[in-house]
From TrEMBL:
MF terms in GO: serine-type endopeptidase inhibitor activity
Family: Belongs to the serpin family.
Protein name stated in the entry: Serpin domain-containing protein
Domain (Serpin): residue spans on this chain: 1-180
PANTHER family found in the cross-reference section: NK21B-RELATED, SERINE PROTEASE INHIBITOR, SERPIN
Gene3D superfamilies found in the cross-reference section: Alpha-1-antitrypsin, domain 1 (2.30.39.10), Antithrombin, subunit I, domain 2 (3.30.497.10)
GO CC entries: cytoplasm; extracellular space
Organism, scientific name: Mus spicilegus
InterPro entries: Serpin_CS, Serpin_dom, Serpin_fam, Serpin_sf, Serpin_sf_1, Serpin_sf_2
Length: 180
């Protein structure tokens, strides 16, 4: 486990018996969001009640409180490769795979280009330096000062996480961490 102390946006969602934590990336318009069910609440209950609209509502500034927290998160790295050929073809994107029909003239002056394979790879890593996803990363130096003891947010059991664009609320990455 790693830990961080900071004032972060935090709320409790009674509907799913879970805490929501939003940790902004420094210098970029992204947030790392964690949905942590109460101890003993099955993560599938959270997943089954989760919609994009609810997540957006739970992460709005008027729903959350700026709270001084000790945050404990497990270090983890999730990586996945996806073969996108069949998905693209299922969506009706067929011409890009056919050399006589594909048109990549906006990208190259070469003729008769087509895709033979389209692969998507995603990586999310959380460690002492912060979180990293694709090319996005963040880190923070923490200064300690005297004051009241902060609340504790300890992700020592399964949770869901999201990397969201703050302005558009778009979800760039999402995942489930099952065995901290």
């Amino acid at each position: 486990m790693m830990w961080q102390e900071d004032t972060l946006f935090h709320a409790y969602v009674k509907e799913i018996q879970a805490q929501v934590l939003m940790m902004p990336y420094e210098g970029i318009d992204l947030n790392f969001v964690v949905l942590l069910p109460d101890q003993g609440v099955d993560i599938s209950k959270v997943e089954n009640n989760l919609t994009f609209e609810k997540l957006t509502a739970w992460t709005k500034p008027e729903f959350m409180n700026g709270t001084e927290l000790h945050v404990y998160l497990p270090k983890f790295k999730l990586q996945e490769d996806y073969d996108m050929n069949s998905l693209l073809q299922h969506l009706g994107i067929l011409d890009v795979f056919n050399g006589s029909k594909a048109d990549f003239s906006g990208m190259s002056t070469k003729e008769n280009l087509c895709l033979s394979k389209f692969v998507h790879k995603c990586v999310v890593e959380v460690n002492e330096e912060g979180t990293e996803a694709a090319a996005a990363s963040a880190g923070k130096i923490i200064l300690f000062c005297d004051g009241p003891d902060p609340e504790v947010f300890c992700a020592d059991h399964p949770f869901l996480f999201f990397i969201m664009h703050s302005t558009t609320n778009s979800i760039l990455f999402c995942g489930r961490f099952s065995s901290p």
